[in-house]
Design goal:
Blueprint: E1 2-3, H1 8-30, H2 39-60, E2 62-66, E3 70-75, E4 81-86, E5 90-96, H3 99-104, E6 106-113, E7 119-126, H4 128-144
Antiparallel strand pairs: 1-2, 2-3, 3-4, 5-6, 6-7
Helix pairs in contact: 1-2
């Protein structure tokens, strides 16, 4: 099982930027006597799209891979950080969802493990409760063996 951040909010951001571009283009075409260059109002949605693209790239560079006996958290674009945790050391899995996240069925998962730096947080993943239940079931199975 592989967990990544959800694309739902990112796609909503892209669609919002596109809708803003179309609305501004229509506004400028409908009132040509405004006197400002066409490209100036188009900068605002373009800059917002840049922020969405940065979040999209960050999403692609962070993942949790759940194997039968261990959990691997990887993040990074140019330099990669990998943290591997034995599933039997997972003590608690917490799901946090804001109201907006609940509407899209996404949420944040926080994994509490035994040992040194004990918390792994993955933000905005799809179906977080199902993922949390799956991780806990694997952790309990690993602890029994």
């Amino acid at each position: 099982m592989q967990l990544r951040q959800s694309l739902k909010i990112i796609m909503a951001g892209y669609v919002s930027c596109l809708a803003a571009e179309v609305a501004i283009a229509y506004w400028i075409a409908a009132s040509p006597s405004v006197g400002i260059p066409f490209w100036v109002p188009m900068l605002v949605p373009a800059v917002l799209a840049l922020f969405v693209a940065i979040r999209h790239i960050r999403r692609r560079m962070t993942k949790i891979t759940v194997l039968t006996d261990k959990l691997r958290y990887e993040s990074g674009l140019f330099s990669k950080t990998t943290r591997t945790v034995e599933l039997m050391k997972v003590q608690d899995v917490r799901v946090d969802q804001s109201l907006g996240q609940r509407l899209f069925n996404v949420g944040n998962i926080s994994l509490e493990t035994a040992g040194g730096s004990s918390r792994i947080v993955m933000e905005s993943i799809d179906r977080p409760q199902e993922a949390a239940d799956h991780i806990l079931a694997l952790a309990q199975t690993a602890a029994k063996s």
